[in-house]
Amino acid sequence: xxxxxxxxxxxxxxxxxxxxxxxxxxxxxxxxxxxxxxxxxxxxxxxxxxxxxxxxxxxxxxxxxxxxxxxxxxxxxxxxxxxxxxxxxxxxxxxxxxxxxxxxxxxxxxxxxxxxxxxxxxxxxxxxxxxxxxxxxxxxxxxxxxxxxxxxxxxxxxxxxxxxxxxxxxxxxxxxxxxxxxxxxxxxxxxxxxxxxxxxxxxxxxxxxxxxxxxxxxxxxxxxxxxxxxxxxxxxxxxxxxxxxxxxxxxxxxxxxxxxxxxxxxxxxxxxxxxxxxxxxxxxxxxxxxxxxxxxxxxxxxxxxxxxxxxxxxxxxxxxxxxxxxxxxxxxxxxxxxxxxxxxxxxxxxxxxxxxxxxxxxxxxxxxxxxxxxxxxxxxxxxxxxxxxxxxxxxxxxxxxxxxxxxxxxxxxxxxxxxxxxxxxxxxxxx
Length: 431
Description:
7 helices, 2 domains, alpha/beta, single chain, Immunoglobulin-like, 7-stranded mixed sheet
């Protein structure tokens, strides 16, 4: 064969692989952009308004990155806000509960990136509207101050949610009228001791109640709102629950350093004294109000020191008024105790007596120490907030496994339904 023919044949065979980059494939040398989904991740459970977010970049330079697009299942593509850091708000409350696929892609003006996917589940919390004029506020500043190693964990949040569920299912509370304020609005790993992992809104919960941080501003705003709304109705019911660190001297076993001082508890970014809470509640007209403050040295919120003795006039909180029951988890001179996993001890006992019915018939006894009834006539099948208090007080004093906590001495100032001797003739039944 002619050597020139052989050369042509060889050249023809070698030409396509040598120059394939020019003859086919990525003819313009453009690199595909890359997109990533940061939230929600695979297998996440979401609800409500979901902010789908992520990042994107272009190997050829981010100035060429033009947009990111998002779609749910097989619906249309939507342009997200931003490019290298992007987000897209999706109203998961508008769809049925179930499994969905989130897809995202980036566009650099020439090519789309590979499509990224996240398979998620929608489980929207239940919204309950009852028309009842009842409001509940749960405040738990469990892990403040940060420099204090004695964290209280996430138990206060879990107990608040358990009480919320019970109030909705048994007392006719509307989800629109329930507020849970916890720490700075974040859940932390390691039961409160670790890093921030989820906001309260991102975290899965069963009922569509309002969540926010336990800051002074939020407490003031929510209480002001509850007062304005509840004052519109003669039959309004208000329940307020606080759980936090209390201010005092634990090395002073006699008075905790609180003899001439007001009781004071921590919020996330500040503190609140009993007299300050009293001022916040001045305009509250509800004639059926229960206030529980579960913290160390908290008795001043009920205007009590110890052994059912009143506080000095100059340190009076004035929270207790006609139509109100004010309860504290410890006396003004004593420490309170809590489980990082389950919440404060007194509130756990109080709530257990309430929901199980075991507190039915419990009476004040000597200096409000609490005692079970010896007469069946005092058992009517319903448990009042006062009966639940005496039940918890009795348990702390008599249960062997609780002997290390009997010095807490919870206090009560019962002005329901009226001040004076008539107040004890009728217990406050929630709902």
